[in-house]
Amino acid sequence: MISRELMAPLMFGGLVVFMLVGYPVSFSLAAVGLFFGFFAINFGFFDFSLLQALPERVYGILANDTLLAIPFFTLMGAILERCGLAEDLLDGLGQLFGPVRGGLGYAVIVVGAILGAITGTVAASVIAMGLISLPVMMRYGYDQRFATGVIAASGTITQLIPPSLVLIVLADVLGRSVGDMYAGAWGPSLVQVLLFSLYVLIVSFVKPQWVPGIPRESRTLSGWPLVKKCLWGIVPSLVLIFLVLGTIFLGLATPTEGGAMGTVGAIVLAVLHRPEFSRRGKIASWVASAAIALLALLFMLQTPGVPEGVIAATTSIMKVAETPLFLVFYTGLVIVMLEAVFIKDLRGLIAEASRSTMRITAMVIFILIGSTIFTLVFRGVDGDLWIEHLLSGLPGGKVGFLIFVNVFVFFLAFFLDFFEIAFIIVPLLAPVAAKLGIDLIWFGVLLCVNMQTSFMHPPFGFALFYLRSIAPKEIKSSAIYWGAIPWVVLQVIMVAIVIFWPGLVTSFLDKGNNVDPNKIKIELPASEFERKGEGGEEPAAPDFSTPDKK
């Protein structure tokens, strides 16, 4: 008979074996959980009634409002990926940075960050930039390893920069606010962009032949037309990003509402970037954009911290303007959607984006259901206590725990993708981190930085697979794998930066009102026995010696 103490390690080992075989993770989780659950019931480790919690847990997943943001942000990204925005961004910035050695590398990194903030998925960013920029980089003599590496690495910025899907999942798993997780991730994501750009700069000095500038005769735009093209790609994207994230940060909208707003904004941007739309459709898009932007501004002017006079004036304006603005917005949106229905290319764009969203959402939900089955049984056999004793007993205390966790997650990323790590491993690590006094927002962002490597690890990095699937035949697979290694090193350096500079995450979070609890003085009103009666005498105490007779 198997002892209770062995059940948790055997269960964890069984899961690893299933995943190494290559069986789908969601079904592996459910199968291992149910298999060991029936054995545990048979051996008397827990009662069958424990499994009665499964229907309620599954319902809780499907009713989770936070997770509802995932399909909205995925649909937003899928629409923007296909509407031509990436082409405009890369073309404009490529010509702007083109004369500089490594200019196309800088352009790819900047566009990767912007696309990451508006698409939310690594696949969308890597495929879009690979299709557009890789042939151009090869045409102008860029080194194959450098070109493929910078495209794959810049696509992984998507995982860290808000509104990343991983941050939504981690916030839900860690029981923290999505807005706080987004705020904490801004610092590391910007530093990572700078770190990648610094590497391009170093390469341009050490290996200038790898990153040549674009010849003048190959640059078709200059002056104001070039600036206009760059602004046309960047400004609408940034407006959408800050409109969506700003409402979430300020508490004006939930992540789900922000995602819905982002989806609407993506449809409007798609209209503005597609030539098939009529003049009427484009005017309707501009009107809808102006209405929603004005509404967001009015809402932001009513948040705490704004002077009372401004809030009062804004409230008066809102009473008059809110209904007309919403009416204008919805009228414009209806016109845009009607135009999309009658234009074949845009109808196909929205249909394909919806199918992509459905596939990703279904994958997430199935992994969640499988992980909740596994977790319920794992805790039933005291697996959470086994993990806690294993990790809290590491030498070095908090530092030892962080070193072990980051090395562990780094090697798991060779075999698992970020969703699997977030749903399977993080729930086991979070209680130990909380017990050691580690801030869970900082811990979640640190793990998110680490899990980026799951896309870049040779030979199983998904970003490398995406790039291989669309790269020209003359690009060798060995060049893609070798080209990823320097960027994985940069991501590991980023993990060290977050560990040794926690303020990079925590300084962006709300600090509260900084009230010293030791200086708080609470004065209670005096009781009847402490107040003096009329004439300066104390009131007589009630007589409880005899019962009150009525």
Characterise this structure.
The chain is mostly helical. It has one domain. Helix content is 71%, strand content 0%. The chain contains 22 helices and no strands. α5 (85-97) packs across α11, α7 runs antiparallel to α8 (144-156) and α10 (178-206) crosses α19 (440-451). It starts with a helix and ends in a 44-residue tail after the last helix.
Distance between the termini: 75 Å
Counting DSSP H or I runs of 4 or more residues, the number of helices is: 22
Overall structural class, as computed from helix and strand content, comes to mainly alpha
The gross shape turns out to be globular
Strand content: under 5%
**Rg (C-alpha, Å):** 28 Å
Binned, the helix content reads over 70%
Major β-sheet profile: none
Could you state the order of secondary-structure elements as H and E? HHHHHHHHHHHHHHHHHHHHHH
Number of strands: 0
Poorly predicted regions are 541-550
